[in-house]
Amino acid sequence: MASLAQNLVDTRRKYDKITLQWQETLYQPVDCEVLRESAKFLQPQHYNEVIEERNVDNLCGYPVCSKPRQQIDGNYRISLKAREVYEVSELNCFCSRTCYIASKFFLSQLSPEPIYLRNLDKWISVKVIPVGVDARQVLTKETESTRQIDLGSEYVKAVTNNLPPAPSDIVIKEKVNEAPVDPLSCNKQAHDAVEGFRVKVPAKDRRRTKKELTLTMFGKIWTTLDRITTTNTRMYFKNNEVKVNYTVDSDQYELMMTRSNIFSEKILASYNFIRPILPITVDIVDDLVNLMRTFKLDRQSVMLTEAESNVLCMVFLYALSMNIPELHKNIFPTDDTNNNFKKTLESMGLTMEELEAFTRVIRVAST
Predict the structure, then answer these.
(1) Band of the pLDDT at 212, cuts 50, 70, 90?
(2) What is the residue extent of each domain of the chain?
(3) What are the C-alpha distances in Å from 335 to residues 132, 277, 327, 330, 351?
(4) Which segments of the protein form a coiled coil according to its record (predicted)?
């Protein structure tokens, strides 16, 4: 279990280091191929950091361009023709409007998915606009290529529209059903009697079937937490130490490792989704991983939907905030009832009272 958690942390650190190397490469002007390849290892926030670093060196924010960035006085421009006010402060980061549009086009294609969760073998290459090329030309080519995909269906429509009408002498006749013939025997079971043997048709089971019970979200989360929490979980919150003592054979240990890997990936994916919403600035990935190492997972506990993973992540964050003051300040900056944490919880259909009930399950566990 410990090695699995360490592997997860090591994998993330490895990809964080790769991302940093790509960022440092883009600080200097590069060609289109390098920028296209970098998209595999960049999230939108990583690319925005590249623009900021290039601006510090007075370079255009678009990594393919080597020109200095322009200086525009003021933050707004008034269009007399459109009678609107436009913010132009972002144009200061680029040498021209062309590079600004090209950079925005590249940024829009970057995936927000964490790098260590991506399938790089099936990565779809992004489009990069060369310096000086009008973005409208690239978008026009993309539109034309999309239209070519529909040529087959358009051809079928054209052919069917040109088909001649059906001949007028064709007459459609409906089938006439004949009157049923009375059976030769009045005995309803005579037809299945063969030399004294009669087939017995099993009687229908008229017993009422029970309706399948379904749990609410509250019931599912409560049941999952009660199932996975152990004495080690309670000791972790009490002493902030991880002591996992499970005596299992090698096959069972490998199965537990697999389940822990699946469960941890789902919770960390939910954390990366929730973190910028709250927002959380303190690094608690190691704390989350250490907490999950204390769980005892069965087959059913790792079969989580995305909504269930998000709720469990909120429970873990709230429970950890009682031990980590910096985290508590992040998610509860004020006593206002309308803070982001409570709004996010309400969007999941839960209340603070229900969250506190979940927290008591994992902090006061004794199974």
Answers:
(1) very low
(2) 16-145, 217-363
(3) 52, 18, 15, 12, 16
(4) none
Dump pLDDT digits (tens) for 150-180. 555 565 566 556 556 666 666 666 677 666 6
CATH for 16-145 (3.40.50.10490, 1.25.40.820, 3.40.50.170, 3.40.30.10): 1.25.40.820
pLDDT digits (tens, 9 = 90+) for 78-117: 656 655 556 677 888 999 889 999 999 999 999 988 888 8
pLDDT of residue 67: 94
